[in-house]
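Recall that a protein's primary structure is simply its ordered list of amino acids. Everything else, from secondary elements to tertiary packing, is in principle encoded there. The following example makes that idea concrete.
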Amino acid sequence: MKRKSKKRGASTSGAEVNGISNHGVWLLVDGVEYFAPFELFPWFRSATIKDVHDVKQPHPGHLYWPGLDVDLHVNSLQNPEAFPLVAVSSKKRPGKKKSA
């Protein structure tokens, strides 16, 4: 008698936000905890709690926040020194003037 395998269960890996502090965001990605400080990841500082918590992992090593339109590779959390460029809000860019 041949037995069939049962359907696979829900994946236990993925990404989730563990916490938000005055200094940054704690993320759990595939069982590993990371800290994303606001000084290196400034787009999280003024985001809503709902938008920060809405993190997706479209494929391994890639995180996406749809409400913030932020894509992040896990490597930038593991080795932030290898990614020296920091995003700047368009409101803070030099040369941008408000129209009257």
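Residues 90-100 have pLDDT under 50 and may be disordered. The chain is about 10% helix and 30% strand.
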